[in-house]
Amino acid sequence: MDKLLSNRVKLLSVSVTIGISKKSKELTSKGLNIINLAIGESYFKTPKYIQNFTKFSIDLEKYFFYSPVPGYVDLRIAISKKIKRDNKLFYKYNHIIVSNGAKQAIANVFLSLINFGDDVLIYLPCWPTYIDLVKLLGGNTVFVKGNIKKNFKVSIYQLYKSITKKTKIIIFSSPCNPTGSVLSKYEVIETSKVLKNSNIIVISDEIYEYVNFIGRNISISSILFMRNYAVIINGFSKGFSMTGWRVGYSISPLWLSKQCEKIQGQITSSISSISQRSAFSAIEKDISFILKINNRLLKNKNISISLLEKIKGLHFNNPKGSFYLFINVSFYFGKSYENFLINDSNDFCIFILKKIYISLVPGNKFGDSNYVRFSYSIPLILLRKAIFRMKTILSKLK
């Protein structure tokens, strides 16, 4: 029946993280003790005050109906206040579109901008969804790759050399998934200088904003002359431990936010009314609990690094944000154990999953097949156990 499928759907690959998580759950259901290091979410539960406000909102019995397509006005005003408080940015609520997670927010922007043949410049390593969405819309992906020696950051010279007359969009994340790199204020300013008067749209994915170990996140939207060309993507999944609530948002120039609203109105209309109330409560209250979560994640990161450094052949940087390590495992390519030969990072992940029941994400979908993504956002006792298992099995590869 493949002949009945559209060409565009054939271009799409299955989400690598969703695929790995699905496989892990299948093995867990068979009674195997899988330690999931592929997961892309915080292991902390949604804070009680958010849960309680959600129950209160349900009891009011007034949020059971369609909300405005771009989200409730009070939520968008609250987000406007949040970015003023946390990011020193000044946007009115009508620049903000609340969506079904950051993924839909990005899709809305792409759908509003990309024509067939447009070049979209993507910083590598990157979240794979950027690549597949550009393919879906007929755009051309142009990659600019950072390396481990520079914390995976793209240099200003690389950026300058990659821009052509066909470049319409640049997209990157900071803090970055999968590398944890965080752009400095200097790097943001220098990036804006390259793009000045270029008419190129810059999409800054800041979903890991609060999972940041070095202070306030600096957005390119803070550069005044970029305001008409800069888009912020953010949401509540990572920082507030609200992945399942599905609330993300875009902040864009008014000319673009109107189009995103139109797109969303035709695809999903508004998002869950109750989830919006939950999001409203999340940023209306004191968010000092985020600092406590980050302190625990920082401890997990530091312990992971200290233990992984003792495993021969693994190479990685010390990330400043998100909750991942992006680990070069190419030392083990060409090695084998019990007739299992490792040729690339995909083989490495399959080997680790089958032999010691640990799930990792291969780096090929993120832009580098020499690497795997390792999440340290799990309880510390499991983290230690996972790394011990890895050290034991990897020592047997010859």
Give a verbal description of the structure.
- With 398 residues, the chain is α/β, with parallel strands linked by helices.
- The protein contains 13 helices and 14 strands.
- Helix 4 runs parallel beside helix 10, helix 5 packs parallel to helix 6 (129-136) and helix 5 (101-113) packs across helix 9.
Task: Give a nutshell description of this structure.
The chain has 398 residues and is an alpha/beta fold. It is built from 13 helices and 14 strands. The protein has helices at residues 7-11, 16-29, 48-60, 73-87, 101-113, 129-136, 156-162, 185-195, 254-267, 273-284, 289-308, 345-356, 380-394; strands at 35-36, 96-99, 119-124, 140-145, 167-173, 201-205, 230-235, 248-251, 324-328, 336-337, 340-341, 358-359, 361-362, 371-375.
The name of the CATH superfamily of the largest domain reads Type I PLP-dependent aspartate aminotransferase-like (Major domain)
Topology order in helix (H) and strand (E) letters: HHEHHEHEHEHEHEEEHHHEEEHEEEH
Report the sheet with the most strands, covering strand number, pairing sense and barrel closure.
7 strands, mixed
* Low-confidence parts: none
| Total tally of structural domains | 2
Number of strands: 14
Rg, Å, rounded: 21 Å
Number of helical segments? 13
